[in-house]
Amino acid sequence: MSSLAKAANSDVAGRSRQLNVLLLLHWMRTDGSGVYYARLAKALAKRGHKVVVASTGGPLVHELKCAGIRHHCVRLLGLEYAAAYARFFEIVDRRVLKYFKKWWAEAAANEGPDLEGDFRWGYRGLKVRGVTTGFWFVVAVVAALARLTILVKKEGIEVIEAHSTGAAALAFCCNWLLGIPYVVNVSAPRLAGLARSVFPAINATAGSIIAISEECALYLNRGFVRPRKIGIIHGVVDLQRFRRLGIEENREYLGSLREKGFDMGEHTKKVGILGRLDEDKRNSIISSMLAMPIIRKDIQTAQLVVAGDGAIASEVQQLAAKINGETGSFVVAVIGHEERPERLMNVCDVILGVGTVAIEAMACEAAVIVAGHRVGPQGGSFGGVVSPENVKELAGYYFTGRNGREETSPEVIAEACTELLRHDEYRNRLGVFGRQFVEEFCNVDKTVLSIENIYRGILGKGTAANCERPD
């Protein structure tokens, strides 16, 4: 029996007591971690717990507020300030004023500034102006910690769940200053790999460390985290939202796309890509687009729909226009951010995705191809078609494709897509299986029970039992 099933059947005495939980993360963006914590917060609130979320901000803050969940802006570890101060001391000219105006405008809009490039630049500034910038960095860290401790006291927080190294460091400080127990969530192997240098103190004081996959758990073990402290949670999906929609709903959605100028026919074979169009995903996204002319040689009605925004959005738009021009037909549509991704997942025959997107598409009974962008231990990033034969292995790497032996390329994507688009019955069987898998292992209503048990375990000075691999 899986750990989630055990959690669902073990409604122990005392569970009715409300918990005051703080979820602490860097951003509430529409990426994997932001979506995960938005769903977890709502699920915990539905269970009757008081939930508070603290982050730098992001688009999903509005969703939390609509659900009646309080959000507090805490700029984690002052990385934003560090980048800004480094730039100030490195370049003192008119660009500084322009930079700060833009930065504060984004911060005031509660979207959170996009500082990935600025942080890389700011790191160089830190090396050049180590003393001066280091002083302001310390000031920013103290300010963030002061704000967080006030928040913890004011809200009566009993337990903290922290995501990312910076949030974990702040949670560690709260534990040291106030004695508040905390849990650390590790969602990427590269973060788990920091265990040797960053986690020793956290390992000694954290009540539990949640890994999002067996791969992360393995890295944590190598980083000297005690195995009994590690629990595995394979994502959370709202099955009421992500499900198979009716024919009329799908027609209405396709009609709305046509009204926006996208020539999407009801009887074409559609492949979908959803998620942020970030720099690190460039290879998988571009490869998927370049695969379409190859697919069209066998499936003349095939179309690709790209939904998302991000740093490479303009490049994706330009490539789509080039492919459409060269083929003389509407092959690739770039529709921007999709507020309701479940609608696109329902009208697509195949979804190309990783992580949370892959799991959501499985919940919608779509056939899924895992085309990743990070190379794994076996030299590959292409996980292939999700099927009963390989789902355990893919889940062990959180559907990132890091279990693969081939790198993502237009050729391997085209081969997998063509096979699925040719065989409707096989594709439909995979969709039904995917839904069953998600219902068993990623259902938010079941997963929240396991997480709640972890919270109660550390509050009772116990440790959470290891979650099991999918059977």
Features:
471 residues, alpha/beta, Rossmann fold, 2 domains, 20 helices, 13 strands, elongated, disordered N terminus
Give a concise summary:
The protein is an alpha/beta fold and 471 residues long.
Verbal overview:
This protein has helices at 3-9, 32-46, 61-66, 79-90, 94-108, 116-128, 130-155, 165-178, 189-192, 195-205, 214-222, 247-259, 282-296, 313-327, 341-347, 355-363, 391-396, 410-422, 424-441, 444-459, and strands at 20-24, 50-55, 70-73, 159-163, 182-186, 208-211, 230-232, 269-274, 302-307, 332-336, 350-352, 367-371, 382-385. With 471 residues, it is an alpha/beta fold. The protein folds into two domains: 3-238 and 443-459, Glycogen Phosphorylase B (Rossmann fold); 247-441, Rossmann fold (3-Layer(aba) Sandwich), CATH 3.40.50. It has a seven-stranded parallel beta sheet with strand order 3-2-1-4-5-6-7, with helices on both faces. Helix 2 links the parallel strand 1 and strand 2 (50-55). The chain is elongated, with a radius of gyration of 23 Å.
